[in-house]
Design brief:
Chain A: Its EC number is 3.6.3.31. The complex is a heterodimer of chains A (about 350) and B (about 290). Chain A folds into 2 domains: about 1-225, P-loop containing nucleotide triphosphate hydrolases (Rossmann fold); about 240-345, OB fold (Dihydrolipoamide Acetyltransferase, E2P). Chain A is built from 8 helices and 20 strands. Chain A has about 350 residues and is α+β, with helices and mostly antiparallel strands. Helix content of chain A is about 20%, strand content about 35%. In chain A, strands 6-7-8-3-9-10 form a 6-stranded mixed beta sheet, with helices on both faces. Chain A has a 5-stranded antiparallel beta sheet with strand order 13-12-11-14-20. With about 290 residues, chain B is mainly α. Chain B is built from 12 helices and 2 strands, in the order αββααααααααααα. Chain B has helices at about 1-40, 55-60, 65-95, 105-110, 120-130, 135-140, 155-180, 185-190, 195-225, 230-235, 240-250, 255-289, and strands spanning about 40-45, 45-50. In chain B, strands 1-2 form a two-stranded antiparallel ribbon. In chain B, helix 9 runs antiparallel to helix 12. The relative contact order of chain B is 0.13. Classes of the chains: A alpha+beta (about 350), B mainly alpha (about 290). The interface of A and B includes residues 51, 73, 81, 102 and 130 of A.
Chain lengths: ~350, ~290
């Protein structure tokens, strides 16, 4: 079932075209992410769904109902704000109960559902705590409980993890995912963190300059980016120019491939982990090319090598697991690199 | 180490001493003198320095003093209420509906009345409210009234209107500051959680603006109690306040001890009310900070 349906949605801020003809369907029960760099329109799109921004043209439907004349307080959506927007003059329980004023629940039932919501986000017993006595992670949990207690059809999350430190962020990513499966509500997450989007989402819409550049599940998005821009935005993508050569494609640095020539193709891309460096004594496998270590970055579990190839201006990044007994190669070492044709993606520009 | 401390504390004392001395000479000195005077008596030109509470007994027994103090509190209360209620929409408008780049201009415009002396502004209100004043001639011209209305000058109404106008900026500024501090995401959160604009105002904006409202109330209430220029000029016989009586005791009746006693009494009254408000302020601030 389609929960949210946008068609031909446009929005300007003065002369800036923030949303350009957006067509998008989001399924019920889906964990959907809007991913893009800052200023790409992802937050505007989220605020449009929440009702905080008017759209100039196009239609927005939530659960089949047109939202054009529906103010934010009457939409079946709730939002977790980037700043969490916890009411400073209310305690935790009062914050969570804020939206229940108009519900049919009696006072005692309200207390019960507030308690349940707090338990669900792991803040059992925090009800009487003052809002300003909470840590960042706790504030976020309060914001989540406050939205979920109203049982919305759609939960909107505006960069909810960006203010948390790395450890807490990773923990919350998994927890949000678990929570979404538990309540079964449609979650729409806005984020600029591609890793976060990949970890959490069922589907991701990558946005650039007010347009959706690609809409796909995380694996497709990573393995088969629709454009060079998407490929380079998500993860690391090595990009090499491609020449059309007697009916075949020749990739700078790597050589000719068996793919037939296509006029439109101008670049090829390959992910760092799909290539490998052959250590001394290892036999050749797949396609092999001669290279030289130009730079390296040691990450503990991984080492990222920058290698230079003849006939290629830029360097390629290759990531290698630091397996037991595997040496860390010095800068300047000549090496053989191994790669596979089926790991290549071709781009038009 | 010990030298550092004494050096620092010496420098601290040096920095603090000028304001400390001026406070001592200009505030604590006169205050002590007033309290001392209030326990003395005066018979025409001779000052009797025997300790007595006769002035306080007289202030308690003669109904005129109670009447004037009561009227002062009433006027101050009414002025404060009127000022805060009229100042709030102005502060709200500037904070929520004026473009950020224009806010300082608006605040600047609000201070324009202060470019004229207080005395002149009070006189101008006489021109506005008078028998042949702007309001009366205007209303007669339009045909709403036949004869000039008189309940707007030389009585308490005139005092309240004039003072409310004079103190408006003092109320607007603290309320504006409190409104500016409200995170706008809180208002969106309230809307998102199902509340209308009006309900959001009462459940979020107003409670969060409370510290500003309490500050405005104090800033207006305290000086209005002691005002004697406006009551003298536009108050007429029925519009005089306690400060006018203090002035009269000191300058006309030559009874400085009685004037001092009245000053102490009104100070105590103000202190009690101000303390109550400070306590309220604390209560609201405790939740926020």
């Amino acid at each position: 079932m389609t929960m949210i349906s946008l068609s031909g949605v446009n929005k300007h801020y003065d002369s800036y075209h923030a949303l350009r003809n957006i067509d998008l369907d989001i399924e019920a029960g889906e964990f959907f992410s809007l991913l893009g760099p800052s200023g790409c329109g992802k937050t505007t799109l989220l605020r449009t769904i929440a009702g905080f921004e008017d759209i100039e043209s196009g239609t927005l439907k939530i659960a089949g109902a047109d939202m054009a004349e529906v103010p934010p307080n009457r939409r079946p959506t709730n939002m977790v704000f980037q700043s969490y927007a916890i009411f400073p003059h209310l305690n935790v329980a009062q914050n969570v109960a804020f939206g229940l004023r108009k519900s049919d629940l009696s006072k005692s039932e309200q207390t019960r559902v507030v308690g349940e919501a707090l338990e669900m986000v792991g803040l059992d017993g925090f009800g009487a705590r003052a809002a300003n006595a909470l840590s960042g992670g706790q504030r976020q949990r309060v914001a989540l409980a406050r939205a979920l207690v109203l049982k919305p059809k759609v939960l909107l999350l505006d960069e909810p993890l960006s203010a948390l430190d790395k450890k807490l962020r990773e923990q919350m990513q998994l927890e949000l995912r678990r929570l979404q499966r538990q309540v079964g509500i449609t979650f729409i997450l806005v984020t600029h963190d591609q890793e976060e989007a990949l970890i959490m989402s069922d589907r991701i819409a990558v946005m650039f300059e007010g347009q959706i550049a690609q809409l796909a599940d995380p694996q497709t998005l990573y393995r088969a980016p629709a454009s060079r821009k998407v490929g380079e935005f998500i993860g690391t993508m090595n990009v090499m120019p491609v020449a059309q050569n007697a009916g075949n494609l020749t990739i700078a640095g790597l050589g000719q491939v068996s793919d037939p020539a296509r006029d439109t193709v101008s670049h090829a891309g390959i992910r760092p982990e799909t290539m490998s460096i052959l250590f001394p004594g290892e036999p050749d496998r797949d396609r092999v090319a001669a290279a030289k270590i130009v730079d390296r970055a040691y990450y503990g579990d991984m080492t990222y090598y920058e290698v230079g190839l003849d006939g290629l201006d830029n360097t390629l990044t290759i990531s290698m697991k630091n397996l037991m007994g595997r040496e860390i190669l010095e800068i300047g070492t000549p090496v053989r690199i191994s790669w596979r044709e089926d790991a290549l993606v071709f781009f038009d520009q | 180490m010990a030298d550092d401390v004494s050096h620092n504390s010496r420098r601290g004392l040096l920095l603090v001493s000028p304001p400390f001395l001026t406070t001592l000479v200009l505030l604590a000195g006169p205050l002590g003198a007033i309290i001392l005077f209030s326990f003395w008596t005066q018979d025409y030109l001779t000052l009797n320095t025997d300790f007595t509470i006769k002035n306080y007994v007289e202030a308690a027994q003669d109904p005129i003093y109670g009447l004037l103090l009561g009227r002062s509190l009433l006027v101050a209360g009414a002025v404060t209420l009127l000022t805060v209620i009229t100042a709030f929409p102005v502060a709200y408008f500037i904070s929520f509906h004026v473009k950020p780049s224009r806010k300082s201009l608006w605040l600047f415009l609000i201070t324009i009345p202060f470019w004229t002396s207080y005395l002149i502004r009070v006189f101008l209100w006489k021109v506005v409210l008078g028998f042949n004043g702007v309001i009366n001639s205007g209303l007669i011209e339009v045909g709403i009234i036949d004869a000039p209305i008189t309940f707007i000058l030389y009585n308490l109404n005139a005092v309240i209107i004039t003072l409310a106008h004079a103190f408006a900026p003092f109320a607007i500024l603290p309320i504006f500051v409190a409104l500016e501090k409200i995170d706008r995401a809180l208002l969106e959160a309230s809307r998102d959680l199902g509340e209308t604009r009006v309900a959001t105002f009462f459940r979020v904006t107003l409670p969060l603006a409370m510290p500003g409202l309490v500050a405005a109330t104090l800033i207006v209430f305290i000086p209005v109690i002691g005002d004697y220029i406006t009551p003298r000029l536009v108050g007429g016989p029925g519009g005089l306040m306690i400060a006018n009586m203090i002035q009269t005791q000191f300058l006309k009746l030559n009874n400085a001890p009685m004037g001092a006693a009245l000053a102490v009494i009104s100070m105590v009254a103000v202190t009690v009310i101000a303390t109550l408000f400070v306590w309220l302020n604390r209560r609201f601030l405790k939740v926020r900070s």
